[in-house]
Amino acid sequence: MAVDTAENKGRSESIHMVRKGIATGFPIMLGYLPIAITYGVLAKQSGMTLTELTLMSVMVFAGASQFMGANMIAVGAGAIEIIIATFVLNFRHFVMSLSFMNRLRSIGLNWKAPLSLGLTDETFAVSALHPKEAKMEKGALFYTALILTAYFSWIFGSFLGGILGEVIPERLSQSMGIALYAMFIGLLVPSVKKELKVGLIAIIAMLINTLCIQLGMSTGWAIVLGTILGGASGIYLLKEERR
Amino acid sequence: MIFAIIIGMSLVTMIPRIIPAFIVDKLQFRDWVNRWLNAIPYAALGALIFPGVLMVKPDEPHIGLLGGVVAIILAYIGLNVILVVVGAIATVFLLST
């Protein structure tokens, strides 16, 4: 009887974490769908088949580089060139993954490795601002549910864009370009309200990023430098461990 | 050909993502490194927001900026992220003609 209740408790805890993960990932879905549809439309126009463009979403799962990839395929760039450009653009995920995995130390490698593969700017931003779950029982399920919500909406959106073509009027799809930025702002502002120094870290990163772009650096490297150097200001600004 | 490009893109995105999963178990970071890594999310958010937000409508940077300002206000008064996103989309939609 006692075993049975413990088992039940474990199960309801699991369900709770999965539900919470999906709910937390929902804003990402909202931001991803229009962008994924746009990617699907663009990739189709650049001569990729529906299978190819969907497969790219399944295997790459990185918005910006998929847009760039589709564009480069359209203009007939070489494979090596596209792959190197993708690496440069996505190198920032190394820094983000290092930060995220450091938070997930208490979770086993069997969960960490697959979770790391689902890391994007958006899943990282949302997960990183929910560090408490990493310490909770069944916390891995929270991050898994969150990431899968984002992943499937990305794949589904790409596929939809690929079959439907220009479904969304241009004015609306262009307006939706603000969605992910608004989500990033919506994540950052509450943290700044809690601790003002966090805002300073973000502003330093913005300034470094802007400066690097002014100096003619590519977007990918500018974000990498902005993130690393902006984060370095945290060494001084975040006084003690807030764990 | 496109298939080879997809495989290549997949590998170069997977490798930087997965390496940290293996190395954090091997390393014990000093305090200042932990503070650095804990600041990364905020720095990343900053670098992702600006100046990218100006490119929402590349020929009219003020529209993206205003959408961003609306998002800041909505988030500041404590609205849910979803409402912040919807409010910003509506702002840009109404401003663009």
Automatic annotation (TrEMBL), chain A:
A biological process from GO: L-valine transmembrane transport
Tell me which Pfam families the record gives. Answer: AzlC
Chief location bin: membrane
Membrane topology reported for the UniProt record:
Multi-pass membrane protein
| Gene Ontology CC: one annotated term | plasma membrane
Q: Where in the cell is it found?
A: Cell membrane
Alphabetic keyword roster: Cell membrane, Membrane, Transmembrane, Transmembrane helix, Transport
User: Mind telling me which residue stretches traverse the membrane in this protein?
Assistant: 22-42, 73-95, 140-160, 172-189, 196-216, 222-238
InterPro entries (alphabetical): Brnchd-chn_aa_trnsp_permease
- Homology family: Belongs to the AzlC family.
Q: What is the protein named?
A: Branched-chain amino acid transporter AzlC
Automatic annotation (TrEMBL), chain B:
| Short name of any one Pfam family annotated for the protein | AzlD
Any stretches that span the bilayer, and where are they?
6-24, 36-56, 62-95
Record bears the keyword Transmembrane helix: yes
Q: Which UniProt keywords apply?
A: Membrane, Transmembrane, Transmembrane helix
Top-level taxon of origin: Bacteria
Q: Which InterPro entries match?
A: Brnchd-chn_aa_trnsp_AzlD
Q: What is this protein called?
A: Branched-chain amino acid transporter
The organism of origin for this protein: Virgibacillus profundi
